[in-house]
Design goal:
The chain is an alpha+beta fold. The protein contains three helices and ten strands, in the order αββββββββαββα. It is globular, with a radius of gyration of 15 Å. About 30% of the residues are buried.
Length: about 160
């Protein structure tokens, strides 16, 4: 059991390793990578999912990407399964492969980012590759500040 917890902690920390911390804002944090330049807000799913799950909103200035949502889900998604993201009262259909999910286009990314700024909770639900459905839940306390910190850090390009 202790070995499992240690491995889980390492797996969860992997996306955060070797990053410049921009701050922690309630349940969200912001980080900056120098090469390639990437700044992002990140949060861990609530509860104890079967595998580490987290959400990121990233800016990649050199790729001209701003506010791109990426979710690492707690389970792999069944092939051809729809993935539903609920942010407050807004609903979005995501594209998924394995345990990863994204908005289908930059327009949906922008709508999701706008919804994140005014909601308190977010959830993502899908059918699992091994059967059954699952839902990963997130608190949105601090998300706007973390997203803003990431945006400002990449705008400075320092």
């Amino acid at each position: 059991m202790i070995r499992f917890l240690a491995l889980a902690a390492l797996a969860l920390a992997a996306p955060l390793a070797a990053r410049d911390s921009l701050g922690v804002y309630d349940g969200w944090a912001a980080f900056k990578d120098a090469k390639p330049l990437r700044c992002y807000a990140i949060a861990k799913a609530q509860g104890t999912p079967p595998a580490p799950a987290y959400a990121t909103i990233s800016n990649w200035p050199e790729r001209k990407v701003r506010g791109a949502l990426h979710l690492v889900l707690s389970r792999a998604v069944a092939d051809k399964s729809s993935v539903r993201l609920v942010v407050g009262n807004e609903r979005f259909t995501l594209i998924a492969k394995g345990r990863n999910a994204w908005a289908k286009d930059p327009r949906d990314d922008a709508a999701i980012i706008a919804a994140l700024r005014s909601a308190a909770r977010m959830s993502v639900s899908a059918s699992g590759a091994k059967g059954g459905t699952f839902t990963d839940r997130y608190s949105l306390g601090g998300v706007a500040t973390a997203m803003d910190a990431a945006t400002v850090a990449c705008a400075k390009r320092s």
